[in-house]
Amino acid sequence: RGQKVTSLTACLADQSLRLDCRHENTTATPIQYEFSLTRETKKHVLFGTVGVPEHTYRSRTSFTSKYNIKVLYLSSFTTKDEGLYTCELRLSGQPPVVSNKTVSVLRDKLVKCEGISLLAQNTSRLLLLLLSLPLL
């Protein structure tokens, strides 16, 4: 149907948790989405257009969306925020099409975002640099 979550990654940007939800985007139909946290079997809606975000998270979340990625930041991330994070996409229709990915987040296991984003965004530049080293 053209809206499928392809990956969900988590990293630490300063003191904020950053969740990158990458997805296919091959339809003009608006995408409904939801970021949630499941902790001790209870689901907490953080942000999105599907469920109502819980009051305790509203002031701590910020969100950006581009063509095929939705990025959620959760500020002041602590061990109390550990758990299973889910990114869910829904495409309107009968029946609605749902696609999601989940990632387990533990504060002491998180990597810093700079390494991930630098590598993901600048792979070609980095490869060019490495290939040109023998020429120097």
Architecture overview:
The protein is an alpha+beta fold and 136 residues long. Helices cover 17% and strands 46% of the residues. The chain has 3 helices and 8 strands, in the order E-E-E-E-H-E-E-E-E-H-H. The strands form 2 sheets. It has a 4-stranded antiparallel beta sheet with strand order 1-2-6-5, with helices on one face. The protein has a 4-stranded antiparallel beta sheet with strand order 4-3-7-8, with no helix packed on it. A hairpin with a 5-residue loop joins strand 7 and strand 8.
What is the CATH C level class, in words?
A: Mainly Beta
Residue-averaged pLDDT, rounded?
84
The percentage helix is: 10-25%
Largest sheet: 4 strands, antiparallel
Characteristics:
136 residues; alpha+beta; Immunoglobulin-like; four-stranded antiparallel β-sheet; 8 strands
Short account of what is shown:
The chain has 136 residues and is an alpha+beta fold. The protein has 3 helices and 8 strands.
Which helices and strands appear, and what pairs or packs with what?
Layout: E1 5-13, E2 16-23, E3 31-39, E4 42-48, H1 55-58, E5 61-66, E6 69-74, E7 83-91, E8 97-105, H2 113-121, H3 123-132
Antiparallel strand pairs: 1-2, 2-6, 3-4, 3-7, 5-6, 7-8
